[in-house]
Amino acid sequence: MTLEATTSLTAATPVADRTAGRIAELARRRERATVTARPRRPGALGARERIERLLDAGSFTETGVFVRARALGDGARRPYGDGVVTGYGTVDGRPVCVFAQDSTVFGGSMGEAFGEKTVALMDLALKTGCPVVGLNDSGGARIQEGVNSLALYAELVRRNVKASGVVPQISVVLGPCAGGAAYSPAITDFTVMVDGASHMFVTGPDVIEAVTGERATAEELGGARTSNSVNGNAHFLAADEEDALDTVRDLLSYLPANNLERPPQYAPGAVAAGAPLDDVVPDRIGHAYDMRDILRAVVDDGELLYVQELFAPNIVCALARVEGASVGVVANQPLHSAGVLDIDASEKAARFVRFCDAFGIPLLTFADVPGYLSGVHQERAGIIRRGAKLLYAYAEATVPKVTVVVRKAYGGGYAVMGSKHLGADLNLAWPTARIAVMGAEGAVGVLHRRELAAADDPEALRADLVATYEATHGTPYLAAERGYVDDVIAPRDTRAHIAGALRALRGKRAPMPERRHGNIPL
């Protein structure tokens, strides 16, 4: 049929029929555009399936449905969506923007249209002030599109930086996340990975072996467990995709939509059953206990969402609630290296503290710390510069800050763990607290070296001197006399004191000097 005949036929067709035909054509095009396949990996869901499992049922509205891949030559495949599904919906009734990379289209690699869709979604999230969740499953830059792909990665990272501290950003790695694709999750606030399925690295095993001769599997190089426990690139380890998406929903329940809103408020939870706090801490310094027993007894329903639980376990970072309101918890863990602060623990806690401060989440600190870890390796790896990040984070934070000194708080460890001197609003101590420059054994060895060397019975003298030091310097009362500790409380009363303090501090205002930004020792 000629063009003229087609035009004539269309013109002669009744308006209602023409409209019905166009609507039918729209339906056919939409059906083609929204068909996605499942990845071949066992247990992997399709891009749209992942979004449907994450969001409230029926709440998803897709953007860029009819965007197609750029033409790369005659006969080149130009699939709809270009390998990424973008849009918005709700989680527990609260708005969220989401994108899901589709590994069945060009391996989930980023092309120009792919990148423009993702960047447009980030811009929408910033305009509307809602969190962004990225479901990553990508081989990296699309080689065929060359510099266009690289340009869009840079555009995406610029949006990540612009959104940082404005709206929460959560990355979920559900397959490979390689090359330039790995840097966007690194900038976001939290990263969730799936055990045995997720991999995140800049350079893959084959390239590394070709360049350096080193051999490693993808799992060893950047698998979910490596990223959660060794290098700290990830924050949560999920058993499968369903667990990963449930983790995101749980995480969002603690967070405000943006930095101008308060975190969500729920009905106050109950006090968890467990051992009385008066009996948790052993009498002797050398005996360990589980700090989580204390935390569970203080927060609502004993529930905590641990952040980077497998990385730097000598410090605990978690989100929880007290009287239905979100709090960020930072606590030394005596079960691991006596709760000492090393490079990994300092950086882990510093980033968590800064996140909480950015989004108005009060900080609750529990201190039982022997100080910073000494040793040649730590010094050469930069414990001064990298350990200072935690000092900087606490000093910079303007949210309500409440600290409880549970047992030892020695040297720099006392200062950095939410001390009054770094701006904590209320500092409490248990009667078991020992606040000093160092422990009694070490202090006696330094202060009384000559006396001990000349004594007829140095061990007996040492025991007497240690007992005297602990009775004076090894208590919370000298710090309380100077106002560095606001009160010494019975352990059983900790939750009541914390709840009262957080209520009193709810309207806290702490203006900062005008500046572009500080210069944290990165």
Distance between the amino and carboxyl termini: 69 Å
> Which spans of ≥5 residues are poorly predicted at pLDDT below 50?
1-9
Q: Biggest β-sheet: count, sense, barrel?
A: 8 strands, mixed
Radius of gyration: 28 Å
Helix percent band: 25-40%
Give me the secondary-structure category: alpha/beta
Please work out how many helical segments DSSP would assign. 20
Approximately what portion of the residues adopt beta-strand conformation?
15-25%
How would you explain this protein's 3D organization?
The protein is α/β, with parallel strands linked by helices and 522 residues long. It has 20 helices and 16 strands. It starts with a helix and ends in an 18-residue tail after the last helix.
Task: Give the tags.
single chain; 522 residues; alpha/beta; 20 helices; disordered N terminus
Describe this structure in a few short sentences.
The chain has helices at 3-12, 15-33, 47-54, 112-128, 147-163, 183-187, 205-212, 218-222, 224-229, 241-252, 291-298, 343-358, 376-380, 383-396, 411-416, 440-447, 449-454, 458-472, 477-481, 494-504, and strands spanning 61-63, 84-91, 94-101, 132-138, 169-178, 190-194, 199-201, 236-238, 305-306, 315-322, 325-332, 363-369, 401-410, 426-429, 434-436, 487-488. With 522 residues, it is α/β, with parallel strands linked by helices.
Layout of helices and strands:
Layout: H1 3-12, H2 15-33, H3 47-54, E1 61-63, E2 84-91, E3 94-101, H4 112-128, E4 132-138, H5 147-163, E5 169-178, H6 183-187, E6 190-194, E7 199-201, H7 205-212, H8 218-222, H9 224-229, E8 236-238, H10 241-252, H11 291-298, E9 305-306, E10 315-322, E11 325-332, H12 343-358, E12 363-369, H13 376-380, H14 383-396, E13 401-410, H15 411-416, E14 426-429, E15 434-436, H16 440-447, H17 449-454, H18 458-472, H19 477-481, E16 487-488, H20 494-504
Parallel strand pairs: 3-4, 4-5, 5-6, 5-7, 6-8, 11-12, 12-13, 13-14, 13-15, 14-16
Antiparallel strand pairs: 1-2, 2-3, 9-10, 10-11
